[in-house]
Specification:
- By secondary structure, the chain is mainly β.
- It is 5% helix and 24% strand.
- The strands form 8 sheets. A 6-stranded mixed beta sheet has the order 11-12-13-14-15-16, with no helix packed on it. It has a 5-stranded antiparallel beta sheet with strand order 19-20-26-22-23, with no helix packed on it.
Length: 479
Amino acid sequence: MKKILLVAAILLYAATHVFSQSLAINTDGSVANAGAMLDIKSTTKGLLIPRMTTIQRTGIGTPPAGLQVYDTDLNLLYFYNGSSWSGLSASTNFWTFSGGNIYNNTGINVGIGTTTPAAKLHVGAGTRFTLADVGSLFMQSGSGVGSARDWKIYVPMPLGYLAFRDMGFDNLNNGMATDAMAIQYNTGNVGIGTTNPGDKLEVNGNIRLTNTGTLLAAPSTTGNAYSVTVRAGDPYVPVGGSGGSVNITATNNMPAGGSGYSNLGPSGNVNITSGSGYNTGGGHVNIIAGQTSCWAQTSNSHSDVNIQGGANLVAADAASINVYGGGTVGVGCPTANANGGHLILRSGIGTGTGAQGNIQLLNGNVGIGTAALSSKLEVNGYSKLGSGATVPAIQMKKLTGTSAASAGAIVSIPHALNWTKILAVDVLLDNGASTIPPRYDNPAVDYSFYVTSTDIVIYNGVSMTSFNRPVRILITYEQ
């Protein structure tokens, strides 16, 4: 009887709450909240929703939006949002509030605009950072007091450029006093060591290439290749300012501050090489000193080109200056007998009545065609003093010998030349007190000579002073 009365009471209670559009389940008989279809109240029990594995959860066919299950594999409460399952377990709260701060309390990656973050903070496409006028983005490396290095990325206003600055350790502003790098907003110019770059890249300081580096222009896609220009800056003041220099210096082979090293390699070279030609001539190497203006305030002002070999502090010979004309390769080219390049020394041309400049060789000996020099000018080959077809290219040859020992006798001294090329022969006889030319008008000394195809023949007269005397012969012959 009691069971029947209990069932009837439950049915009556349920019917009453169903008709009121809200259902209350509790132990104190309180009325359901009007804003809820189901109002469950208890201080000792909870709500147990369907439990299943991950495979079972993901295997639910066409789950409706809002469907909730508990995943027993992941120990997470999941709901279906209409397109995918999302975890709702309280244990997935990875954020902690502390005062006015919020931070991630685990080691997981955080994604904004992406579901697969690959870093601690991964911002996907279409996301934008917006900072106030004084806002900054800080990046830190290291951890712990005194070891955390901070960098600040910010947009200083009202200048509006993007700036990068080292803030030192622990963001105590004990780093750089100025911005390390800046990118201008209106030009895209990048400045390193300057916040006001005047070109696409402006560096206030030195540039270092690690290992072997090359400074080159990008390949052309339209025709002519692009050039690389290295140019010093202009002076700022109009009076008394000096122009900037371009210095190209190779390094020494001795480490800085070092001494006593052995087996060192050679010092670095400075190489200036023009481009090779494919179906045209190769490029030129031009070294030109700057012009001197009409307003030069120093008398005899001019700009020079100075080329100097290096000094040698130890060995007997100092460095040489070698200048070569171009040679011909002769490989794969139809011209088998091409001429080598010229070496041209040309002085400057004056204006009006001004004289041309000189070519001056001030020190040492000069050799043409020879490196074994014993005089100021030594030419190994024929020389032409003048120009034109009537000016011969000549050489000279010196012979020595001794005259015959009696009157009317001869002595033959071989010349080993093509006798048809001989232009002049000078003979001097040494009589002990002076040198006497042939047919000297003094009867006490009498001799003559003539030239054959093989010899210079010395003929004695009657004077004994010309007998058995030393003879010097100078022959001038043409090419």
